[in-house]
Write a structure and sequence with these properties.
The protein is mainly beta and about 190 residues long. The protein is about 10% helix and about 35% strand. Strands 1, 4, 6, 7, 9, 12 and 13 form a seven-stranded mixed β-sheet that branches. The radius of gyration is 19 Å and the shape is elongated.
Length: about 190
């Protein structure tokens, strides 16, 4: 069914549904998944025939791995073919941890880092264990093919080379970052016009 997502490290959980009739309060339904299937399509699904005046809305729920790092932010990546047939892409930060604000250019400041390189450790004093978002495409064009996928980014954690340097007593290579932000990527939801 194509309803899959991949992670680069820990096994955080992601659920995404898209439809034309979702509202923000649907995030708090006790039957979130059942309702998502009834009123929309899951990640990997296909949307078509947008009702006049309506744009796709996504319901997104993420939960960190029980033994892993907190979540920094959730992004929606939209790709589309413009009127000339050229591919376009835009990344939207849709929900994030803490009280950070988007700057004048729409960029989100860094979550920071708790990584202790010498000890090859980190802590979950930043980020959030769970993030949920309702997002509606602000630039939807019912005549353009498009796709939407979700990217979930964790807070920084030590990179495997940092763990190895600590364990084996080696000096960390200078050309390798000491930390990494693992992430999850969902299958896209595809929109096809009539």
């Amino acid at each position: 069914r194509k309803e899959v997502y991949a992670t680069t490290g820990t096994r955080l959980t992601v659920r995404v549904f898209a439809g034309y009739d979702f509202v923000a309060d649907d995030l708090h339904r006790h039957d979130f998944a059942k309702y998502g299937y009834q009123k929309g399509v899951p990640m990997g699904g296909d949307l078509s025939n947008a009702p006049k005046g309506k744009a796709p809305a996504l319901l997104i729920s993420t939960l960190r791995d029980a033994d892993g790092a907190n979540v920094d932010r959730v992004q929606v990546v939209k790709g589309w073919l413009d009127a000339t047939g050229e591919p376009q892409e835009k990344i939207y930060d849709v929900v994030w941890s803490g009280d950070r604000k988007l700057d004048a250019n729409g960029k989100l400041p860094s979550v920071g880092s708790t990584v202790n390189v010498a000890d090859a450790s980190y802590n979950n004093s930043i980020g959030a264990p769970m993030l949920q978002a309702y997002w509606k495409d602000p630039a939807f064009n019912a005549n353009e093919r498009a796709f939407y996928y979700v990217r979930v980014i964790e807070i920084p954690t030590p990179r495997w080379t940092t763990y190895d340097a600590k364990f084996f007593g080696f000096k960390l290579p200078e050309d390798v970052p000491a930390s990494i932000q693992d992430r999850a990527y969902t299958s896209p939801i595809w929109y096809t016009p009539e």
